[in-house]
UniProtKB/TrEMBL annotation:
This is Ankyrin repeat-containing protein At2g01680-like. It is a multi-pass membrane protein. It comes from Elaeis guineensis var. tenera. GO terms for cellular component: plasma membrane. Residues 201-228 are annotated as: Disordered. Gene3D superfamilies: Ankyrin repeat-containing domain. InterPro entries: Ankyrin_rpt (IPR002110), Ankyrin_rpt-contain_sf (IPR036770), PGG_dom (IPR026961). Its main location: membrane. ANK repeats lie at residues 71-103, 140-165. Residues 217-228 have a biased composition (Polar residues). It is found in: Membrane. Keywords: ANK repeat, Membrane, Repeat, Transmembrane, Transmembrane helix. The chain crosses the membrane at residues 305-332.
Length: 406
């Protein structure tokens, strides 16, 4: 029987439901006593928008409208969150007290409607001037205006502040008014319009609402007899408000720029490290002076005796740049701990970059020196484009000027 009732409620089959009631007239009475933690037929009808089915259930057993399912939602919560207008109308015929039912998180149906961004205007208009419901608070003390402002729902805030029954300066458990909620939230486009909208409706910050402390000494009253006029105080509040929003926007821009720089830095380091690794690898595979082509020493470096220092600098630059590439590859959002732990064993990444640059400088300095100085001799570049070597302190056999080289 219950399986057939569940199938009928899911399909919205009113004929099948009436047939079940003819077979068992106490079917709904048993549901009201046994289904306290699961979806009853009214929950399913409200969730799926079966208005006729919901109307028939409510006409026979209106108490089912107050039942909560296993998620803590009443039928009105489900209908409001899913914008099933006809079902909401049928439920409100039972009574506006259904709007005061709280789910397990302390949200009433109108709070759920604001969070989902649906059905708010209908519920507010339907409730009219019922200030108790319109200004009801969730478990954190937030009213529907707090929730709408926190979600930057511009049109909804505009609608709510236009209603006289809405209290624009109510406090939540943190002591925040709706304007405070706006100022404490991350800055977004449209915050100025939203803030001016709340200000125009009489919204204030918590510090503006709190009464000022009375002077503790009579002399203070004599020294400062002039009080700030309401207009001046109001302008001061506006200036503080705009200054705060401007500071938030500036801070957000700085944070965004810093984030973009941090995101771009690994890519730049990867390009530089790859270039250095390529250059140093190529230099190691093709050392200055080349290789001996003939004889018993074929395949050996021509300047083999002088390559030790060159290769040291080359290997330092190569392995340092490769380690940087390895670190950058390991830096993914879920494995940042790899980089953190590894950097405890090696130099700071910036110092490592400096090491690579220094190694490259020494590498090319060494190479230039080796190209100009050969073993036991010096070289000179002639106008005919040839290099000629001579022994130190010896006369040039082929030089017409009989020069000496030191």
């Amino acid at each position: 029987m219950e399986a057939r009732l569940e199938a009928a409620s899911l399909a919205g089959d009113l004929g099948a439901f009436l047939q079940l009631l003819q077979e068992d007239s106490l079917l709904l009475d048993r549901l009201s006593t046994t289904h306290h933690t699961s979806n009853n037929p009214l929950h399913r009808a409200a969730l799926l928008g079966h208005a006729d089915f919901a109307s028939e259930i409510l006409s026979r057993k209106p108490e089912l409208a107050q039942d909560l399912n296993e998620q803590g939602f009443s039928p009105l919560h489900l209908a409001s969150a899913n914008s099933h207008l006809l079902v909401v109308k049928e439920l409100l015929k039972v009574g506006s007290d259904l709007c005061l039912i709280q789910d397990k998180d302390g949200f009433m149906p109108i709070h759920t409607a604001v969070i989902k961004g649906k059905m708010v205007e209908f519920l507010v208009d339907k409730l009219g001037g019922d200030e108790e419901i319109l200004n009801s608070k969730d478990e954190k003390g937030n009213t529907i205006l707090h929730l709408a402002v926190a979600r930057k729902q511009l049109q909804m805030v505009k609608f709510l502040v236009s209603k006289p029954a809405i209290q624009v300066n109510s406090f939540n458990l943190k002591g925040f008014t709706p304007l405070d909620v706006l100022l404490e939230s991350p800055s977004e486009h449209g915050d100025l319009v939203l803030g001016e909208m709340i200000r125009a409706a009489g919204g204030k910050k918590a510090e503006e609402e709190s009464p000022s402390e009375a002077p503790s000494h009579p002399t203070q009253r004599a020294i400062n007899p002039v009080r700030t006029s309401p207009m001046r105080s109001n302008w001061k509040g506006h200036l503080q408000y705009f200054f705060h929003l401007g500071h938030k926007a500036k801070t957000s821009r700085r944070a965004l720029q810093a984030k973009q720089e941090n995101e771009n830095t690994p890519g730049t380091l990867m390009v530089v490290a790859t270039l250095i690794a390529t250059v140093t690898f190529q230099a190691g595979m093709n050392p200055p002076g080349g290789f001996v082509q003939d004889g018993t020493n074929a395949g050996l470096a021509v300047l083999g005796g002088q390559l030790f220092g060159f290769l040291i600098f080359d290997m330092v630059g190569l392995f340092a740049s490769l380690s940087i590439i390895l670190l950058l590859i390991c830096v993914v959002p879920r494995t940042k701990w790899i980089l953190t732990n590894f950097l405890k064993l090696v130099w700071d990444l910036r110092n490592r970059d400096e090491l690579v640059i220094d190694s490259i400088q020494l590498l090319f300095t060494k190479e230039i020196g080796m190209l100009e100085k050969k073993k036991n001799g010096w070289s000179k570049y002639y106008t005919d484009g040839s290099w000629r070597s001579y022994q130190k302190n010896s006369h040039c056999r082929r030089c017409p000027c009989s020069c000496r080289f030191y």
